[in-house]
């Protein structure tokens, strides 16, 4: 139980950060300051619940993240989970276990990151908990969301002969992290990554608008957010839906910055794209007849959309097709990128 001084610190980090009008728009009746928050769910919607935990030296390193970035990313990871169901994020509960080395100023920066992300996506921060950790910072966030009743998109709805798509480039976060990690024993020091790659790792942009359009229009038959890597998320859809996913190497969205940086690091960008993770774009499937309508709508909204493959009948699996006559279709391993090693 926090002491009175700790209550004062918590108030300094949270009080007045969001206006009464913003909280009311999110259906908040009682927010921070009581034993529990009171919120009013949206009528005609299903409630979504997501939770994610970040542990220092497991999910992030102080060498690669500013304090505010940690708060931002902890909430953004949950926002992406809500987006992957086609929902709108609403209310956040934030629990922080703080090591003694962290003073009030660093905690204030951490909460700056929480509220920056919350304000960006219209989220009301309605409570949480603060306790002491012996050594490492631990951040756990619970996020609610809403989706029109019956419109939530799961991983299990894909069928054969559908398109496979992503809502943005992949591999940027992994490339940024690679260049910011301390060099391994005997390892060469890579050049510092371009700003776009650094920002992709520190402040990812969940595809909330894309997810809501895909759910509202009934276009997506399955969705998953790319948190553990494109290969891992594709396997999750394949296994949940009972289909085969075939990805085309030449259709994967490779950014120019990532290609140039991978070349400078003597790395294969495909490794980062397939196994990197933490891009928080959406991977999904849709009926072929809707592909043109989706592309037209996304283009009008200024949102990226890339068709990268198709589904087939057969045993669950994921394959990469190089479309090179001399190279056979090859299976993609079901694994995620090891974030804390250099290749």
Automatic annotation (TrEMBL):
Binding site for Mg(2+) 3: 35, 81, 225
PANTHER family, A to Z: THIAMINE-MONOPHOSPHATE KINASE
Amino acids binding Mg(2+) 2: 52, 81
Binding site for Mg(2+) 5: 228
Amino acids binding Mg(2+) 1: 52, 129
Function summary: Catalyzes the ATP-dependent phosphorylation of thiamine-monophosphate (TMP) to form thiamine-pyrophosphate (TPP), the active form of vitamin B1.
Pathway(s): Cofactor biosynthesis; thiamine diphosphate biosynthesis; thiamine diphosphate from thiamine phosphate: step 1/1
SUPFAM superfamilies per UniProt: PurM C-terminal domain-like (SSF56042), PurM N-terminal domain-like (SSF55326)
GO annotation terms (biological process): thiamine biosynthetic process; thiamine diphosphate biosynthetic process
Gene3D superfamilies: PurM-like C-terminal domain, PurM-like, N-terminal domain
Residue ranges constituting the PurM-like C-terminal domain according to the UniProt record: 160-315
Residues binding substrate, per UniProt: 59, 278, 337
Domain PurM-like N-terminal: 33-147
Residues given in the record as ATP binding sites: 111, 128-129, 155, 227
Similarity annotation: Belongs to the thiamine-monophosphate kinase family.
Main EC class the enzyme belongs to: transferase
Miscellaneous comment text of the record: Reaction mechanism of ThiL seems to utilize a direct, inline transfer of the gamma-phosphate of ATP to TMP rather than a phosphorylated enzyme intermediate.
Its EC number(s): 2.7.4.16
Protein species of origin: Cohnella candidum
Record's catalysed reaction(s): thiamine phosphate + ATP = thiamine diphosphate + ADP
Record's signal peptide: none
Identification of the protein by name: Thiamine-monophosphate kinase
């Amino acid at each position: 139980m926090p002491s009175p001084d700790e209550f004062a610190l918590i108030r300094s980090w949270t009080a007045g950060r969001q206006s009464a009008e913003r909280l009311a728009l999110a259906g908040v009746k009682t927010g921070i300051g009581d034993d529990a928050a009171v919120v009013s769910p949206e009528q005609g919607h299903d409630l979504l619940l997501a939770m994610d935990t970040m542990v220092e030296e497991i999910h992030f390193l102080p060498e690669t993240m500013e304090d505010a970035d940690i708060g931002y990313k902890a909430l953004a990871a949950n926002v992406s989970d809500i987006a992957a169901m086609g929902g709108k994020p609403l209310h956040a509960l934030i629990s922080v276990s703080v090591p003694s080395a962290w003073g009030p100023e660093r905690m204030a920066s951490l909460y700056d990151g929480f509220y920056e992300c919350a304000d960006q996506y219209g989220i009301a921060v309605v409570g949480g908990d603060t306790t002491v950790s012996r050594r490492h910072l631990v951040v756990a966030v619970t996020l609610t969301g809403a989706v029109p009743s019956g419109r939530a998109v799961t991983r299990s709805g894909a069928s054969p002969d559908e398109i496979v798509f992503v809502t943005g480039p992949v591999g940027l976060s992994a490339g940024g992290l690679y260049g910011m990690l301390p060099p391994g024993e005997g390892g060469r020091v890579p050049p510092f990554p371009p700003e776009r790659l650094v920002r992709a790792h520190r402040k990812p942009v969940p595809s909330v608008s894309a997810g809501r359009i895909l759910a509202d229009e009934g276009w997506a038959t399955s969705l998953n957010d790319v948190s553990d890597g494109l290969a891992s998320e594709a396997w999750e859809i394949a296994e949940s839906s009972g289909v085969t996913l075939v990805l085309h190497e030449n259709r994967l969205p490779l950014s120019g910055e990532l290609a140039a940086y991978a070349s400078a690091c003597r790395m294969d960008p495909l490794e980062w794209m397939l196994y990197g993770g933490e891009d928080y774009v959406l991977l999904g499937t849709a009926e072929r007849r809707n592909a043109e309508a989706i592309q037209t709508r996304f283009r009008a909204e200024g949102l990226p959309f890339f068709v990268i493959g198709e589904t087939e009948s057969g045993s669950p699996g994921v394959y990469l097709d190089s479309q090179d006559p001399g190279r056979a279709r090859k299976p993609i391993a079901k694994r995620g990128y090891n974030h804390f090693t250099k290749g």
